[in-house]
Structures are given as C-alpha cells and as structure tokens.
Amino acid sequence: MTRRVLIALTSHDDLGGLRSTGYYVPEAAHPWKVFRDAGFEVDVASVRGGEPPQDGYDAGDPDQVAFLTSGAADGTPRLAEVDGAAYDVVFYAGGHGTMWDFPQDPDVARVGREAYENGGVVAAVCHGPAALVNLTLSDGSHLVAGKRVAGFTNSEEKAAGAADVVPFLLADALKERGARHEGAGDWEPHVVVDGRLATGQNPASAALLARRVVELLS
Q: pTM higher than 0.90 for the full model?
C-alpha cells in the first residue's frame, strides 16, 4: 500500500510589516524529497490555494530547486478542499507566515484532526506547529495536551529579530495548550516524537523529522 502525505503550507506573506514572508521553502522541499525517496505519494495544499508565498529559498540547494521545478507547490488546492482522512501523514511546513493563518484557519486544524483520528501521523516543523495551537480532537481536547513537542524556540525567535513582531511566541502558546515543549540549542537539529505526533524545532530539523515519520510508518 502506497503511503500518502499531505504537506500543508501557509498563504500569509507579511511578517508584521517588517518584510515579506511565506512558507520556508527548505522545510517543504527537504521532507518532500525524503517522503518521495521512501516511495510515498506526496500532495501539497495551502490555506488559500494557488501558489503560496515563499521565504528562505536557496537556489544552490538542489532539493529546493527540484521541489519548485516539479510544480508541487504550483496551483495548490485550498485546505478546505482536502480530506485529511485520505492521508497517512499531514505535515505542516513552517515559515513565519504560519503564525498568522495556521492557528486561525479551521481547515488547517481539520485536516490534521481527520488524519490523526484515522490512525495517521501529524507532523510539524519550526513554525509549522502553529497549526497545533488550536488543533482539537473530536472530544474537544487539544492534540498537544500532555504530549512532548518541539518547535521554534523563544530564543530562536529573538535571534531572528521577530520576537516583537509575531502575534505570539510559539513555544509559549504550545505550553498554554498543555504541551511539554522541549527545546535544544539555537539552530540545532531537534526532533521529538510522542506517539503519532512528530515535531521538529527549526529548518535544520526538517529532513530529520521526515525520516522519523517514515520510520513511524514502516
């Protein structure tokens, strides 16, 4: 049986007036390659559909070039059009844009809930765990409650110069939902797996996180 993965991307392009933003390309591209190399079928969707705004693109990275030239992120469907239960994994890629639209969009939470309650894995990297802040299960409980998670740390947000720009600090918001946030040093690869919830701290964690997800499904 071929495993199916949905990579969910932000559609928000404004970093609080500081500069433009969007999804962080390597955080989608590196997992996309890992999943495809594992033989998985990978789809990409975004909050508003179409071509989502990009941030952090490195034209010297062949994996990022391959992802963008593949057309995987061109003309994406809206998450509102996606059945989360059809996927073995919902993977929330990061990028600062997620901090604005991921927590507020009901379909961001819905696709994750549908996959998780159908026995699938929910994964998120860097700012992607913004999707988990308001992701509740059918019984009303927060998915992250009582679970170990990683995500962009307060220290990294300060180092990025965005601590006073983002609408909230991600690590704090996850803790407020009952998660046990576990951070490593700034910019160090760090992945936490708790059952069928897998999270990574920063861009350096994206490929490692995808490999851990593949292990979960093997």
A: yes
